[in-house]
Structure to design on (1172 residues):
């Protein structure tokens, strides 16, 4: 069996790839559904109904799309420069921490000042956190995959300490959570009687912004060049290290903003379970979108459908909602194969 | 004296597309003799060896070893028949010991225990018998290059090879190591082994071989007993063409634009890749660097590209003084760099033609404003360039990866020459191009010269060098010769210099 | 502070250290074998998780403890096979493949666990391994009973250090694995099937990782919790670098890191400590990063690590 590069990849093929990958993943996971004793069609029907079957359901799905878009963008931007940022989870939490430090009463500002400040603080925190493994990569050649991963655990323990310790809200009746964000710092709701908040617009704007950056700006050009061929980029005079650092600040910043979003849009106070793995899921979102910022919105939506739908399905059938994570994980693997097949033809000797 | 033939290649032919790499090659090798196989890069030696070892299958012809024809396409067949190869680029694992490198693959995988004591005993016996002293327990990365080669030879002998193929064995050795190798070879011959010695170094070939065959453009053009031929005859057979007429007009060179002053660049194990090299490039002249690849050309190219800084000595640019530049600086100083490695270094395959053409200037006012790229400007610029440089492509938005090698080179030329640089590095600028494209590149370089630019031309194509250069310096083992006048030097003399033969003539220009 | 030092010198501390080092030893040995052959196996965290779940589930369903361990190894090997299919045979990104395997193995563990035990609020328990006393050594007064009475899986871990060391450095298979990770082209030239050796190494390494995971549920604790592995897999990756890809040093590294876990437990018992216990919990992760930084200068990486090998390419 040999791999032969294709000379022409149409746009249709490039989009079909991830779609087929996802379908393949769902087909594979239908085996699990069968094992559980439920009918596959029932299960998937309930999944889609649960995610999209009512106004409230759609709003919930869009709410989840919000945070996944931002973590997906964080991964997509970084991966474009071949910076393997697996630390989205930790960056999300430090973003939320930064917002907690400024948004629980320290700054008594009106919303149009406070909210952007909180986002800025969160982005800064996330970016600076990613900067550490990035500098280790550029200057000491330490692989960033493991360092960003390990930082996640460290940050989670930090949050654990803060939330059980100095930041513990005395008015929370013993629950480990930080003080609540003041009203001026909370994001307004977009849809009455739902949890969908203005963060959704922030996420969309960020996706568009990331797209504009990558496609139309000098910085985007440098990021793409460094990711495609760092030696040729350096030869041509592109400042490679500076570009990687810039990418890290943007990527970490986006993940930090995801944390702020969840905090001031959804939860209202910092807890340990602010993120059930959104940072990691963001990686799958990015890969499914082929690292395209606008595509991230779609794949984030899809993944949100899977997770929300699985929650609802698990309440009706005896299929555990962990199936959502399984589908996501299988999709990551199938999309790898589909990317390979998009670029290469399989030839039998 | 009767010759006991141990290996013969009969009418071996191999074609790769339009290229006839091997053309009805007939060679034979007798016991106890050294056959030297001479030829420039691209003459067909590597293809022949790959056929022998089953990595390629010949279109026609056969190989016979010890009377048995080798089944084609089976790498193990040659090894099992008793043929061993000592590669030019060592196939050794640096982080393992000598013993481990030698015995890999000689014991059954699931054997459980290694029989190290027997292995060491055998290795010691071979070392003693053939004078190849090496410590079996030493780590390969601590060995000198000469010692590494001994390990490669031992690898073959350990597998009971009776025929040794040595591919450019002296390319990386110092003179005393070469002597040591020759002593080893003599020992091998005494015990009835036969050696094929692939090389381009005439002095050594004359010293060690019994018979010699010269390959050129895939054919055997000369077969002789070494004692009955001469270096001159061999050099001429290797290179084989009459001196072409230069197309350039004489012009006086202007001020110095760039100079290397006693520059030394160190490589692994403190090897001098460039050894106190000095050259001066003046306005309105083309200086050619002639030499077989691997003698330091890459280092000169890297110096001018900004990828390498001199470890000793100075690099000076007019208007900037002594510099230790990065690539970005070289772009700023207006040095045009046409590189050998188009795909890897010169172009970013996954980006579009328009993006690649702007890769050195994307920050210029005409291409970017307020941080945003001006795509219309980029595209227009690209369109103009692909037209003037005749680049065949499906449009400026096509990915560079899809272009043919020749068109990629034209793209690089376009990017470099459109800026009208004063200093141009041209490293193998016409490699892989057809006649028309080659002529075009030549005319571009000559035109640059006419308008006062200085061109440093590094090439393995002697025709090209002689045609274009005002002066030629030969590089050998990192050292540059004095300037030679291409109109007053013969191909034979050039060939000799390139092979390390000390020049008795020296004409400064 | 004096209290702290007192604690280090108790046998209890060292016994706890050895116990907590066990999964790290298995994981590091497993990853070490994979990386020696040239493959970075980022699936380790997921494989340890599913190893812990699989082993426990086997015993919970009525099987024997040692069968549970074998079953965990088998499951780990399967995931190793999947990993090598993607990373070795198809030459896909080892980073993304590994992350995918971790996500898949982890999520499958939780899914299967929830499906087989749908209505439990507290994780059910099994009867874990009894400790074995090492003869002679355990008769030493004071130290003996504390230090040399450990779970049989701990003894197995120590044995594996010796076996892997012997295997890698004294057998033809081990030599083939090391050569394939240093210079696969040379190995191929000498008749070794590079893809086969690499897959074999990944499968074997993954089996070891899974056994390390099973220690958590069959020995250290007696139930399976979500998030039980808690990043131990990632620590093992750093430990491999720290150990310079040598089994003996891997053991030392594992003990060193585990000692911080042991210390953290002690500190939790002392309510009046100035340093919050989370700091001790952070220590292994922080130290892993520090270890990577220190070793980045001198790391003797297997030369062909992360580089996919394509047959016949020269």
């Amino acid at each position: 069996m040999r791999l032969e590069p294709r000379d022409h990849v149409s746009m249709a093929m490039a989009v079909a790839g991830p779609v087929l990958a996802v379908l393949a993943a769902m087909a594979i996971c239908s085996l699990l559904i069968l094992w559980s004793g439920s009918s596959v069609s029932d299960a998937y029907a309930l999944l889609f109904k649960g995610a999209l079957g009512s106004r409230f359901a759609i709003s919930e799905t869009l709410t989840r799309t919000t945070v996944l878009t931002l973590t997906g963008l964080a991964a997509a931007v970084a991966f474009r420069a071949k910076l393997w940022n697996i630390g989205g989870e930790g960056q999300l939490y430090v973003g939320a921490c930064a917002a907690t430090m400024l948004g629980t009463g320290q700054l008594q500002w009106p919303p149009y000042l406070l909210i952007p400040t909180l986002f800025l603080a969160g982005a800064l925190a996330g970016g600076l956190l990613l900067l550490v493994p990035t500098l280790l990569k550029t200057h000491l050649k330490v692989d960033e995959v493991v360092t960003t991963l390990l930082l996640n655990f460290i940050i989670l323990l930090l949050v654990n300490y803060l939330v059980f310790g100095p930041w513990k809200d005395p008015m929370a009746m013993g629950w480990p959570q930080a003080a609540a964000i003041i009203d001026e710092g909370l994001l307004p709701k977009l849809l009455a009687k739902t949890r969908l908040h203005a963060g959704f617009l922030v996420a969309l704007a960020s996706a568009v912004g990331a797209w504009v950056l990558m496609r139309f700006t000098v910085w985007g050009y440098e990021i793409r060049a460094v990711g495609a061929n760092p030696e040729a980029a350096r030869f041509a005079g592109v400042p490679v290290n500076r570009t990687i650092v810039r990418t890290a600040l943007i990527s970490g910043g986006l993940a930090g903003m995801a944390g702020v979003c969840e905090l001031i849009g959804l939860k209202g106070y910092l807890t340990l379970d602010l993120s059930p793995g959104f940072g990691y899921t963001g990686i799958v979102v990015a890969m499914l979108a082929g690292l395209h910022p606008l595509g991230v919105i779609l794949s984030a939506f899809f993944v949100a459908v899977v997770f929300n739908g699985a929650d609802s399905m698990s309440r009706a059938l005896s299929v555990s909602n962990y199936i959502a994570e399984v589908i996501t994980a299988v999709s990551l693997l199938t999309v790898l194969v589909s990317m390979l097949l998009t670029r290469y033809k399989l030839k039998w000797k | 004296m009767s010759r006991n033939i141990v290996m013969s290649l009969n009418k071996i032919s191999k074609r790769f597309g339009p290229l006839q790499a091997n053309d009805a090659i007939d060679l034979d090798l007798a016991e106890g003799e050294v056959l030297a196989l001479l030829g420039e890069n691209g003459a067909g030696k590597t293809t022949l060896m790959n056929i022998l070892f089953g990595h390629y299958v010949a279109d026609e012809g056969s190989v016979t070893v010890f009377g048995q024809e080798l089944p084609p396409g089976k790498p193990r067949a040659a090894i099992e028949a008793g043929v061993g190869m000592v590669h030019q680029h060592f196939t050794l694992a640096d982080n393992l010991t000598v013993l481990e490198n030698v015995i890999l693959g000689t014991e059954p995988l699931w054997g459980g225990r290694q029989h190290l004591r027997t292995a060491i005993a055998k290795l010691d016996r071979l070392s003693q018998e053939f004078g190849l002293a090496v410590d079996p327990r030493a780590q390969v990365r601590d060995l000198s290059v000469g010692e590494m080669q001994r390990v490669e030879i031992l690898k073959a002998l350990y597998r009971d090879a009776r025929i040794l193929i040595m591919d450019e064995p002296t390319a990386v050795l110092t003179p005393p190591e070469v002597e040591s190798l020759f002593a080893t070879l003599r020992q091998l011959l005494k015990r009835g082994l036969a050696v094929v010695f692939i090389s381009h170094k005439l002095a050594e070939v004359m010293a060690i071989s019994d018979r010699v065959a010269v390959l050129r453009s895939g054919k055997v053009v000369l077969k002789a007993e070494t004692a009955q031929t001469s270096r001159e005859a061999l050099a001429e057979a290797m290179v084989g063409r009459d001196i072409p007429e230069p197309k350039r007009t004489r012009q006086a060179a202007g001020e110095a634009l760039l100079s290397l002053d006693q520059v030394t660049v160190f490589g692994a194990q403190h090897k001098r890749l460039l050894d106190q090299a000095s050259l001066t490039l003046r306005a309105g002249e083309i200086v050619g660097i002639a030499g077989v690849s691997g003698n330091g050309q890459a280092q000169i190219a890297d110096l001018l590209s900004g990828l390498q800084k001199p470890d000793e000595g100075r690099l000076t640019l007019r208007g900037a003084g002594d510099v230790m530049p990065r690539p970005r600086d070289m772009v700023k100083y207006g040095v045009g760099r046409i590189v050998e490695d188009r795909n890897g270094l010169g172009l970013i395959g996954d980006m579009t033609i328009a993006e690649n053409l702007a890769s050195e200037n994307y920050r210029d006012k005409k291409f970017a404003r307020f941080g945003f790229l001006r795509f219309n400007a980029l595209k227009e610029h690209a369109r103009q360039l692909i037209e003037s440089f005749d680049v065949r492509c499906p449009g400026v938005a096509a990915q560079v990866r899809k272009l043919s090698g020749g068109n990629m080179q034209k793209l690089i030329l376009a990017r470099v020459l459109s800026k009208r640089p004063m200093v141009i590095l041209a490293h193998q600028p016409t490699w892989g191009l057809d006649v028309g494209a080659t002529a075009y590149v030549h005319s571009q370089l000559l035109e640059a010269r006419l308008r006062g630019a200085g061109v440093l031309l590094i090439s393995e194509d002697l025709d090209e060098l002689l045609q274009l250069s005002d002066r030629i310096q030969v590089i050998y083992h990192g050292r540059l010769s004095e300037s030679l006048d291409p109109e007053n030097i013969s191909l034979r003399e050039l060939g000799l210099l390139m092979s390390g033969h000390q020049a008795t003539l020296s004409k400064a220009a | 502070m004096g209290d702290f030092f007192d604690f280090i010198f108790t046998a209890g501390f060292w016994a706890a250290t050895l116990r907590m080092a066990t999964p790290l030893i298995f994981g590091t040995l497993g990853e070490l074998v994979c990386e020696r052959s040239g493959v970075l196996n980022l699936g380790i965290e997921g494989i340890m998780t599913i190893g812990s779940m699989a082993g426990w589930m086997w015993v919970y369903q009525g099987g024997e403890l040692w069968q549970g361990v074998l079953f965990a190894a088998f499951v780990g090997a399967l995931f190793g096979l999947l990993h090598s299919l993607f990373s070795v045979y198809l030459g896909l990104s080892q980073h993304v493949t590994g992350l995918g395997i971790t996500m898949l193995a982890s999520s499958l563990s939780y899914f299967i666990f929830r499906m087989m035990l749908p209505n439990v609020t507290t994780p059910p328990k099994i009867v874990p391994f009894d400790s074995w006393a090492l003869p002679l050594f355990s008769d030493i007064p004071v130290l003996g009973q504390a230090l040399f009475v450990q779970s049989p899986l701990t003894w197995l871990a120590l044995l594996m250090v010796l076996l892997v060391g012997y295997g890698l450095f004294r057998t033809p298979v081990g030599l083939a694995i090391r050569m394939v990770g240093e210079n696969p082209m040379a190995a191929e030239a000498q008749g070794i099937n590079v893809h086969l050796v690499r897959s074999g190494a990944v499968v074997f390494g993954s089996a070891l990782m899974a056994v390390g995971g099973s220690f958590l549920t069959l020995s250290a604790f007696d139930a399976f919790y979500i998030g039980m592995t808690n990043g131990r897999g990632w620590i093992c990756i750093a430990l491999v670098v720290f150990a310079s890809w040598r089994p003996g040093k891997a053991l030392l590294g594992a003990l060193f890191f585990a000692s911080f876990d042991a210390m953290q437990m002690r500190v939790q018992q002392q309510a009046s400590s100035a340093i919050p216990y989370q700091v001790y919990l952070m220590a292994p992760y922080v130290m892993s990063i520090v270890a990577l930084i220190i070793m980045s200068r001198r790391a003797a990486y297997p030369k062909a690590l992360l580089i996919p090998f394509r047959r016949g390419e020269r």
Observations:
- Residues 42 and 317 of chain A are 9 Å apart (CA to CA).
- Chain A is about 70% helix and 5% strand.
- Residues 64-289 of chain A form one domain.
- The mean pLDDT of chain A is 91.
